[in-house]
Amino acid sequence: MREFLKSTKFKVLLAFLAFLVGVMIFAVTKGGYSLSGASVINTLTAPFRSASNGISMKMEHTLDKIKRADDIYDENQRLKAQIGELNKQLTDYDALKAECDELRKFVSIKEGHEDYILSQPCKVLSYIANDPFRSFTINKGSAEGIEPYCPVVTAEGLIGITIEVSEHVTTVRTILSPDLSVAVQCSSSGADKGIVEGNILSAESGNTKLTHLSTNNHLREGDLMITTGSSGLFPKDYAVGTVKDIQIDSNGLSSCAEIEPCIDITRLTSVIVITDFSGKREESDED
Amino acid sequence: MRIKTTREQRILYIKTVARWVMYYIIILASFVIMTSGTWLKPVLLVPAALCVSLGSGQYSSAVTGAVCGFLTDIACGRLFGYNAVLLTFFCVISSLLFELYLRRKFINYFLITAAVSFIQCGLDYKFYYQMWKYEHVSRIFSRYTLRIWIYTMISSVFVYILYKITDRFLMPKTHLTIEEAIKTN
Description:
The structure holds 2 protein chains of 2 kinds.
Chain A: H1 2-6, H2 8-29, H3 36-67, H4 69-112, E1 117-118, E2 122-127, E3 136-138, E4 151-153, E5 158-165, E6 170-174, E7 181-186, E8 194-197, H5 200-204, E9 208-213, E10 224-227, E11 239-248, E12 255-261, E13 270-276, H6 283-286
Antiparallel strand pairs in A: 1-13, 2-3, 2-13, 3-6, 4-5, 4-13, 5-6, 7-8, 7-10, 8-9, 9-12, 10-11, 11-12
Chain B: H1 6-34, H2 45-54, H3 58-76, H4 82-100, H5 106-128, H6 138-170, H7 178-184
Helix pairs in contact in B: 1-2, 1-6, 2-3, 2-4, 2-5, 2-6, 3-4, 5-6
């Protein structure tokens, strides 16, 4: 031992140790930055370390999987159940959001027209099978105050009229039907009046027809047509649809136009019935 | 005629009830299909009613025809009872034809369904569109009536298969098999 302590080997090792201590103290003074040597080493070894780390991680992972198979299985089942629950909540949320949006629209009808007495929102039960004019049934009827010949609307515009009412189901005839005529006028000018009446050709593309229009009309494509309310069947100033294509009628005496309803009548999910409004024609008025 | 035991009678009763329940489940399913969606659909209740009349007596055919007719009226938004009258009439006629003149073969059923369905679709077109002289009314015939008739014809094959499966398991046997005859003797 004494020989070793006296040997050059010991002195060299001691010097090396002192050097390392010096390096260490120098590293402390760098305030968190690595020394250039360390940096070189880090850079050079980085790919190898990364590869080895990847391998070891994979091995550990595999071993861990084998070791913790039961735990992982349980965790997987728990997470699956959690995802199912979250998906269900998401679906409920979406349904509620859609319902909320729909109700908000219906509230806007009431806000804009205080004289309207509205039914509760009605769900479309089903479309009448094979009807070219897209009549449909709704899930509210006379028990909810709906009567025959009440206007059926959405916040976007007029849909049609109730034609057959039972206690909890009502059949609605749409504005695509040739059996329903609605007096309309252009919303921007207040002039250019005509009759919106369904047509077999127009109904095929989900549109309706504006007839009895003066040949000197000033209608342009995109003009909004609104109800005149003159018949007493429909409230005044309710949107019906926009003008798509103006032509001279086959009789040559008047013009006609293709009208695109404000909402796609072939894809309705819910509507509202206006059970009363100012200017409504009562049965006694007819007599 | 073979005298049935109490157990055989009970089985016969249960099978008959189950068969009719199945018939009406098929009818209800046809109605549900007819009232769903916005596409053109076959009038499934016509082949369904005719299928029942194929193996049943006139009374039961008439009742089934009426039920199917009422359901068709609801599904198609027609005057309540209009199709009921038509289908009751055609089901009774069909039942009589199968009892007196025709064998219970698929081809006979198919031809009768084709004829009845065509009459039903044609009358529907006549009374609900052509009579009111709508503009371009012939388009309804070519684009709706004929297509619905063709769809009904195609769907009648599937309806027939469903009824045949029901009958295969639940229809009481009208004749003794050779084995049964040997056992009875």
